[in-house]
Amino acid sequence: MKQAIVSGDTSLGIELGSTRIKAVLIDNHFETIATGSYEWENILENGFWTYNLADIITGLQTAYSEMKQQVERSHGVTIRTIGSIGISAMMHGYLAFDHTGELLVPFRTWRNATTGTAAKTLTDQFQFNIPERWSVAHLYQAILNEEKHLPRIDFMTTLSGFMHWLLTGKKILGIGDASGMFPIDETTQDYHETMLRQFDELIAAKGFPWKLEDILPEVCISGKQAGELTKIGVKILDRSQNLQPGIPLCPPEGDAGTGMVATNSVRQRTGNISVGTSIFAMIVLEEKLSNVYPEIDLVATPNGSPVAMVHANNCSSDINAWLGLFREFSEAMGQAVETDTLFDVMLTKALEADQDGGGLLSYGYYSGENITRLEKGRPLFVRSPESNFNLANFMRTHLFTAFGALKIGMDILKKKENVAIDSILAHGGLFKTPVVGQKMIAAAINAPVSVMGTAGDGGAWGIAILASYMKNKERNERLEDFLDEKVYRTSNRTEIHPDQSDVKGFEEFIERYKKGLVIERAAVDHFM
Hints:
A hairpin with a 3-residue loop joins strand 14 and strand 15 (279-284). The mean pLDDT is 93. The strands form seven sheets. Strands 16-17-15-14-20-21-22 form a seven-stranded mixed beta sheet, sandwiched between helices. The chain has a five-stranded mixed beta sheet with strand order 3-2-1-6-13. The chain has a two-stranded antiparallel sheet with strand order 4-5. Helix 10 crosses helix 16 and helix 15 (436-445) packs across helix 18. It is of the alpha/beta class.
């Protein structure tokens, strides 16, 4: 291990997630050597969900520094070189810069549901679903709103593309992340030329000094080198300045792509579910869908295969908030409890609940929800006098609602499009508690769900794998073969099949969930 660190026979993955920036260093056997992290939160500022750019740099440096110090403590080695590096982050959103590199408006994240008019217009224009989160929807909505910064745009990208640009000077994006900016043509593995032309024609009367293709990042397939760490990049990443420039970087990817890698779900008929502040399922398709669905995004794997993606903006935030309240109660009683213990105890209570959650209802909408057509979020918990209100049902209801919007989209794929799925793997911090999350998701999609031993490291480990693939792949070795034959050859995974009583209970809950949306919409209207 020490020799691997000294020789640089390692790969580093850094992912900027919605609540945590994480760095994971792996060896050439894909085992984790050390990790570091930085907690952060988005803020609602002037009507937009955003992150402070200073926090982005601070978080990147802190996560790297923690990882570096862990190596020094455990192995007595100061990191001076790394074999390869990869950057990943939340997909979509809007980061627009002028020719000097100045950010023109605060970062608008995927969480904003303010682009409904633009998304609908572009979907109709392209006959291809353009979700509200996508970068092109944010751009077109800014055009509809006649925002003043638009003539100054020289470059727009995602968060991973921005960080990669800072570290390498290269305006490049992995194809998976790029597919959440603008539609990708499967045959050319580049932006869809016809749709690019349609967009330029749509805005021609505005007279902007740019065409869309000119301001988008270059699309890059996994396995290719996408630049090297520059001297400026070293100063941004490593406060100690021990790291040497010249380290190769793989194409930056979105959290969807790294989730696919972290769950070995890049082959056709495989899929994964990523659970965090948001939740999304990715199914690698054998055939094109027969229809356009606003609930279904069409994106790409890191190696360019078409993927059906069901993305819900809200998942774990409300659960975290409620458990924070229980933590306060415990501390007020003089019984402080560790975070992992609190989550294990509370989530496990859901296994004792009535199958449908006892007639309770919850919407954990901290932000707007595209699948259920809500522009703003209002977390809401509802019960009737007939509900069976106890702790077990309370926890099951919050888990069910965390997966509720996702189920609506997955039902379209399974029941309307008859999409075949051989395996689903789930990852995210929720699965640190054994069994519970798997059982609830298996009930939601009525299919077996597996979790790997790397579930907790998630996308940061996944982008480290992509960095290793770039450096260590054999000639013409495909990503799916590299994963099957090298990374996951002896993988540790546990699979849970759906309990049909849970499936029936979830179906009863989801009917209540759909009917109750009128209450949620009323709450949004009342508290605008």
